[in-house]
Amino acid sequence: MISIENLTVTFGGVVALDDLTLTLKEDVVGLIGPNGAGKTTMTNAFSGFVPIAAGKIVIDGANLLQLSPHKRAEWGLSRSFQKVQIVDDLTVQDHLLAVMDAQKTPRRDRPEIVAQVLDYVGIAACRDLLGEALNPYQKRMTEIAKCLVNEPKLILLDEPGGGLSETEMQRLRSVISGIKFKFGAQVIMVDHDVDLIRDVCASTAVLDFGKLIAFGPTDEVLQDEAVKTAYLGR
Amino acid sequence: MSKTIIMPLAALAIAVLILPALLSALWVKVATSAAIFALAAAGISLLFAQLGLINLAQIALVGVGGWIALRLNYGTEIPVTVIIALSGIMTAALGALLALPALRIRGLYLALVTLMAAGAFQILFNNFQFPNGGPGFWGVAQQSAADIRAPILAQTDQGYFRYTLIVMALCFGLVARHRVTAPGRAWAMIRQSEANAMAAGVNVTFYKIWAFALSGFLAGVAGSLLAGALGQLDARSFLASEGILLFALAVVGGVHSWLGAVIAGILYKLLPALLNDVGVSADIALILFGGALLHAIITAPRGIAGQLLAALQRNAG
Amino acid sequence: MVYGLFLVSGLAVGSLYALGGIGLVILRNSTGVLNFAYGAIAAASAMCAWQVSDWGLPGVISWLSAVAVGMALSVAYGRFIAPSLAWREPAVKAVATLGYMLILLGVIGLIWDDALRKISLPSDTVAVSVLGVRVTLTRIIAFTVSVAVVVGMVQYLNRSRTGLNMRALADNRDHSALLGIPIIKTETLAWGISGALAGFTGLIFGSLVRLEPTVITFMVIPAVAAAICGRLHSLPLTLAGGLLIGVVESMLTLYRPAAGLRSMAPFLIAALVILWMQRGEKLTFAKGA
């Protein structure tokens, strides 16, 4: 369970997140909102990339914000970025090993974890390919695999569905939906694609101008009048 | 044994066994210097290829390594090989100190910080000179230099050349080992984006400092080998302009492999001597270097080594 | 009296650093290139000026030739080499100019062998007394020109059409192209102005300090230090930085223990400025330039 308490982030005079309080219990939680609503700021607050003006993020009784950014991965936070961060001259396996290096995963366990995770996301055949040789879908899946190798407690996915075809989206959906069952991690997913959110997120939070305007079961939230006005433009 | 290690080992064996016998006394000395500066260039390449950082102060660190080695050689009874290692470690610590600005800035400003450091060291060397067996902390005497001790296994010029080649190869091995293990992977993530590396749990600060320290270590070892090869050092060898030239040649040679560093060492020391030997002005070498740097930056980011290796692969396949 | 002497000579050298820094900053502001070849261009210009006066041509022609050669060498790089690097990061653009610097150094070395040369300007013989110190007209010119260039350029960049274009280009190349700003013309102009300043600086440096190509070439390092004082951006601060460096360097001569290390002044001042620029910043990520 994740509780966000009075979280406030300001840049100069601009309030990017305004006194946000929210408790997330479901396996996969969606986070939506128009551009500039504060979605990315929120993921960056989890990662420790933005200065926090007030509030805390408590996960299983621990305040995440007290850890330095790189320690959060060790604790069990992983994330993907909106822009895929695959290194051209590292193999898929090396990307996963880099995460496990930082995690100090015992050397003998590593091959098995790599095999298991790559098998789960369905790119086992790409293990020894260099980043530059991957197609966008394989890159995306490598990013998700990276998020799974550090025994995660919480995974943040920033627009994982960007630029994928319909069949690829289908596979992405089943991968994201199965994470909690297979790896035990809760997922927060930021996306613009309402269909994707509806399919995989049990509950969804909606941000607008840094404020929480709706939160609850996804279907109800998407029917909410305030949400439709702010986000769906209807 | 993997294929990637056979070629370097074969090259080393040929160089150690055959070159000293082939070359005349003068050319053995030149080749020794070339190998030493290949080692220093490997440090520049490491920072540029792995982290995209521009270090124009490598020559200054070579000077520092040489200074420490001379000081220890005159002032203590420590075996020369141990001195080389010590000097490498101390210079590594100084390199790590240079990394401190790199934690907050990168790109052009970092290059400028290293350039300022190179300028400052040039003046320090010029002012205090290098130890030559004199008294006091600076160890500089007015009379001509006293002799320094050579490594036990390398009492002749040929022996010292072999010794240098082996030390160089060991250091290249150290760098190669870093590239394929945890530090290499961490550096690659940092180069892609610091946010990405941090999110993956990489300790960005530690690995940046480590890269500078390793590069400084190579410079320190190179400096102490140079001190041993020449017997005494001259402040004019460590001008900021030399740091710029060595950086340029590391890029021209190719920053992504040990071969590039070797090419840089050859261009830096051997080519001017060769041109001189056939009566061509050293200025021609400068023009060639400048043109090659522009060429490397505009069209051949992997340098001469990259082009050679690609050609080899084409022929093999 | 003795302080006056060192103050005046410090201001003269400092105004050379400042002139160098100003030329660098003008170019960087409009093209994004920090030109390490600036000193080599200055050296080539000074050598040409010497050559012209050695041929017995009048002093004015020698002055003009320095400025013309500086412009030509700078514009040549700006037109033929810089465009292929236009989209690369600033550090790479700067490193490329190191290549040009090496080429120019080599060419200068081929044309003029090492020899003791002197370039005497007509203005060297005229002198006035300032603070009881005899100051040659050359020094006064160096100082006045650097101040005048700063005032003039600031006015020009703020008021004129091309000045505005240069500033727009510095902000965003893509947008400038969309707005119909003639990129090539504007950039060429910046390369030209910067080159002319390099030529002028080289000439004065050759006359006041030393006429030796490598020395003038690496004068670019203290010039960069002056530019750093202006954060590679502000002309007035670059001027102030250059003058400060010159004066500190000159004054240190009076303090015996530091006398040998006085030429470290540019580097120490630049390093302090870089540290000061980061004061109070708490950064998660390293900042690029």
Can you lay out the helices and strands and say which pair or pack?
The complex is a heterotrimer of chains A (234), B (317) and C (289).
Chain A: E1 2-11, E2 14-24, E3 28-32, H1 39-47, E4 54-59, E5 62-63, H2 69-75, E6 77-80, H3 92-103, H4 110-121, H5 136-148, E7 154-158, H6 166-183, E8 186-190, H7 194-200, E9 203-208, E10 211-217, H8 218-223, H9 225-232
Parallel strand pairs in A: 3-8, 3-9, 6-7, 7-8
Antiparallel strand pairs in A: 1-2, 1-4, 4-5, 9-10
Chain B: H1 3-17, H2 19-22, H3 25-51, H4 58-75, H5 80-104, H6 107-128, H7 157-180, H8 182-192, H9 194-199, H10 204-230, H11 240-253, H12 258-277, H13 282-298, H14 303-316
Chain C: H1 2-31, H2 38-54, H3 59-80, H4 90-111, E1 127-130, E2 133-136, H5 137-159, H6 161-171, H7 173-178, H8 183-208, H9 213-217, H10 220-229, H11 235-252, H12 256-259, H13 265-277
Antiparallel strand pairs in C: 1-2
The end-to-end span of chain B amounts to 21 Å
- Count of β-strands of chain B: 0
Q: How would you spell out the order of helices and strands of chain B?
A: HHHHHHHHHHHHHH
Query: How would you sum up the global shape of chain A?
Result: globular
Largest beta sheet of chain B, briefly?
none
C-alpha termini separation of chain A = 33 Å
Q: Any idea what the shape of chain B is?
A: globular
Structural class of chain B: mainly alpha
**Share of helical residues of chain A:** 25-40%
Largest sheet of chain A: 6 strands, mixed
Number of helices of chain A: 9
Strand content of chain A: 25-35%
| Strand residue content of chain B | under 5%
Largest sheet, spatial ordering of strands of chain A: 6-7-8-3-9-10
